[in-house]
């Protein structure tokens, strides 16, 4: 039978196989403008059927005691996480709705910043696939609050452990990560010289 630890272990394997990239020349440019020799392109994991199923289950476990009605974050990284959580939470009998925070407020029609069946006063989780500086997550938190929702906590798939978590903790009481960079890199078998 699978345990949360064995499911996390399998998720790490998928991330290392599909999402971890290393390059010293050229370096990756990050959302914050920082440069890095490594990059987690999470989409091949978060859009993978097994990856989605594992992520949805792990998020449901992490939210077992949370009184929240919905989860979502800044598009695009958060979207597959929110969808996976919505489906698995429904299957487990405690549904958590998905929502999407637009990068740009829609210029016509509803002119909305948030998409989904969410309403002012609801208690929600803000998701992100990666936290580096926390800037993207903080943008999502601000938009969510502007819409009148209450942020219960933040959950990221991967915390790169570069200070972003502390930046978010200044705004939200609780910030969790499914995995940290350290937990993932323990299982990286690339050249030692290529370790971030
Ligand atoms: O903590 P930060 O310094 O903000 O960096 C992390 C953010 O960077 C990536 O988003 P990106 O801007 O690449 O957008 P995408 O998800 O639309 O690809 C990732 O999905 C996080 O949201
Ligand atoms: O900081 C970022 O922009 C970033 C880092 C990373 O590893 N993965 C990602 O999607 N974004």
From TrEMBL:
Signal peptide: none
Top-tier EC class: transferase
InterPro entries per the UniProt record, alphabetical: OPRT (IPR023031), Or_phspho_trans_dom (IPR004467), PRTase-like (IPR029057), PRTase_dom (IPR000836)
Binding site for orotate: 132, 160
Keywords from the named record: Glycosyltransferase, Magnesium, Pyrimidine biosynthesis, Transferase
Record field: catalytic activity: orotidine 5'-phosphate + diphosphate = orotate + 5-phospho-alpha-D-ribose 1-diphosphate
Named cofactor requirement(s): Mg(2+)
UniProt GO MF annotations: magnesium ion binding; orotate phosphoribosyltransferase activity
Pathway assigned to this chain's UniProt record: Pyrimidine metabolism; UMP biosynthesis via de novo pathway; UMP from orotate: step 1/2
Residues reported to bind 5-phospho-alpha-D-ribose 1-diphosphate: 102-103, 106, 108, 128-136
Protein purpose: Catalyzes the transfer of a ribosyl phosphate group from 5-phosphoribose 1-diphosphate to orotate, leading to the formation of orotidine monophosphate (OMP).
Assembly and oligomerization: Homodimer.
Name of the protein described by the UniProt record: Orotate phosphoribosyltransferase
Species annotation: Syntrophus gentianae
């Amino acid at each position: 039978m699978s345990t949360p630890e064995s499911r996390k272990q399998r998720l790490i394997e998928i991330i290392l196989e599909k999402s971890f990239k290393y390059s010293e020349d050229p370096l990756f440019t990050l959302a914050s403008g920082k440069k890095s020799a490594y990059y987690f392109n999470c989409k091949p994991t978060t859009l993978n059927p097994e990856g989605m199923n594992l992520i949805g289950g792990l998020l449901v476990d992490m939210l077992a005691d949370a009184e929240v009605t919905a989860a979502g974050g800044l598009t695009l990284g958060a979207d597959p996480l929110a969808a996976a959580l919505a489906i698995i939470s429904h299957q487990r009998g405690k549904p958590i709705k998905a929502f999407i925070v637009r990068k740009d407020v829609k210029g016509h029609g509803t002119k909305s910043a948030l998409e989904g069946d969410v309403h002012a006063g609801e208690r929600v989780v803000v998701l992100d696939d990666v936290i580096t500086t926390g800037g993207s997550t903080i943008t999502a938190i601000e938009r969510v609050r502007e819409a009148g929702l209450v942020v219960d906590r933040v959950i990221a798939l991967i915390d790169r452990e570069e200070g972003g978590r502390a930046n978010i903790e200044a705004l939200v009481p609780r910030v969790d990560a499914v995995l940290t960079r350290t937990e993932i890199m323990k299982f990286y078998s690339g050249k030692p010289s290529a370790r971030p």
